[in-house]
Hints:
The structure holds two protein chains of two kinds.
Chain A: E1 3-8, E2 11-14, H1 18-21, E3 25-26, E4 36-40, E5 54-59, H2 66-76, E6 84-88, H3 95-100, E7 105-108, H4 114-119, H5 138-141
Parallel strand pairs in A: 3-4, 4-5, 5-6, 6-7
Antiparallel strand pairs in A: 1-2, 1-7
Chain B: H1 6-27, H2 33-41, E1 45-47, E2 52-56, E3 62-64, H3 65-78, E4 82-85, E5 91-93, H4 101-109, E6 127-128, H5 143-153, E7 168-171, E8 185-191, E9 197-203, E10 215-222, H6 226-240, H7 251-258, H8 260-274, H9 283-292, H10 305-314, H11 316-325, E11 326-328, E12 334-339, E13 350-352, H12 353-366, E14 370-373, E15 379-385, H13 389-398, E16 413-414, H14 429-438, H15 442-448, E17 453-456, E18 470-477, E19 480-487, E20 502-503, E21 508-509, H16 510-527, H17 534-541, H18 544-550
Parallel strand pairs in B: 6-7, 7-8, 16-17, 17-18
Antiparallel strand pairs in B: 1-2, 2-5, 3-14, 4-5, 4-13, 8-9, 9-10, 11-12, 12-15, 14-15, 18-19, 19-20, 19-21
Amino acid sequence: xxxxxxxxxxxxxxxxxxxxxxxxxxxxxxxxxxxxxxxxxxxxxxxxxxxxxxxxxxxxxxxxxxxxxxxxxxxxxxxxxxxxxxxxxxxxxxxxxxxxxxxxxxxxxxxxxxxxxxxxxxxxxxxxxxxxxxxxxxxxxxxxx
Amino acid sequence: xxxxxxxxxxxxxxxxxxxxxxxxxxxxxxxxxxxxxxxxxxxxxxxxxxxxxxxxxxxxxxxxxxxxxxxxxxxxxxxxxxxxxxxxxxxxxxxxxxxxxxxxxxxxxxxxxxxxxxxxxxxxxxxxxxxxxxxxxxxxxxxxxxxxxxxxxxxxxxxxxxxxxxxxxxxxxxxxxxxxxxxxxxxxxxxxxxxxxxxxxxxxxxxxxxxxxxxxxxxxxxxxxxxxxxxxxxxxxxxxxxxxxxxxxxxxxxxxxxxxxxxxxxxxxxxxxxxxxxxxxxxxxxxxxxxxxxxxxxxxxxxxxxxxxxxxxxxxxxxxxxxxxxxxxxxxxxxxxxxxxxxxxxxxxxxxxxxxxxxxxxxxxxxxxxxxxxxxxxxxxxxxxxxxxxxxxxxxxxxxxxxxxxxxxxxxxxxxxxxxxxxxxxxxxxxxxxxxxxxxxxxxxxxxxxxxxxxxxxxxxxxxxxxxxxxxxxxxxxxxxxxxxxxxxxxxxxxxxxxxxxxxxxxxxxxxxxxxxxxxxxxxxxxxxxxxxxxxxxxxxxxxxxxxxxxxxxx
Lengths: 145, 555
């Protein structure tokens, strides 16, 4: 079973196993408002998804960037504020992009090292762009030059 | 030139540390070949036929003397004493050791350089006019906007894992020397009625196996909206671009499949949400960038043509160099100098550490320590006082960097081809060399006039063969190297709308290429009108007479 890591007030940590155990993920066709919703990367972000109990996006491959754009749209265009979880081919070297695009939970597959993953969540102390977790780009955030 | 602030310095230092840890994980067996491949590509490292190849970013082709000296040092210390100027204004090293690459990146960081996003399916180095800030026909110096886009695209959280590589080019001059029509995004900078900078936005141009001229989807985009509009284009591409077939994954395929109008509508729909949002550029940020590219402290100099005419008369070779390699400058008394690397017997774009050091010295002495790399794979000294042209010419001659052939037949654009590149179907360097050898008669070369020959070793088109007046493409025919020849292509820098070359006919063997080229010249020389250049002549008489001549003796 993959290991869930989550954003907490004092940083990122491994979540307890029970947190994932009882979730009934539904694909959009079976989903009702208030259920946990599992999205594939080719889907459109429909407005009603903002009512999901939680949302997971499945990475078909670690280097497929569609999940990142879908996450941004859920967070910004829809204003979704609940848990946004990365599942599927989650790779430790993509985590820092995920965080900046609005994911706040990731399932680390069994064949990856969770300790390395936790170390790679924020390899950069500063970034140029505005993103979901900090919408102001560097030129608004601080005095440049 | 733009200088890093603490923010940039910290970022690049952290990137080097990050890549060092990734390399260590790979060497320790914690990352597979395929996983590490994606990471090393985003740090400029390919593994080629013979050895790794490191592509160092030269943002929009602009370098300082100090930076070029560092590249010379890297060539000496980690390579075999030379580097290669690429058609995207970058520098490549062909023989670094994979384990030493983090050390090279650390050295580069000391002079505010890196190799970030010079390969991989991400936003690549933004390119522009190699004469930016100096050209007489310039309306807007594109470099400040290139730097804004460099920062925006560096380690972008959402757009670092695209369906395919992504190239942006900008021009701000009447003559488009950046070939914006054949880029994923092309930007033409101009001034609106109030003197404010605006951009015409083109998407979906490209070369490769499906060459396409880009479509305009916005006219007069105000500068403050530049990043949000680009973000919307990138988001539409990232979501809908094909990922099932790498040959159909570029944005041009998406734009063509949707139609430019529908693509534009999709972009506008996304843009409505983010337009005027926090990524909207602030005037202060634009001003900071413009200030970074303020013109150097030019002296008040006259255009001393009498002195030059005298030297021209005494030294006919200097006269030829002035005519072909020296370009008009916007400041009186100054000139733009192109240092040609195209010497018969040297692979196109290869420069030695000694030449790099020499060019760095000249840029300090004659050009405010500034220099450029052109997409034609030459060095450019952008701001040379005319009174120093003769001294510079003498020094450059001694370093084999003064061949008076810029824009002429022997100024060939050529990819590394089958000698180095694992993608190539055929060799390209020996073809370039055979052409340079066959047509070494100086008078003949000058008589032929402006002529771009572009050679690619495969249909990935790194040698831009589609936009060569004469394009040569290496193809594989049952395991044999053959070459397909096209005519009449150009990227818009002859004052005409850009066009793609037309194929003359069946491909030919390598030893026949120079004969075909000779036959093409014969047709041109026979048909041309007084003063008519090759491209104009081709457009007037069409491809037919060329076909007839080239295949006259075929069965």
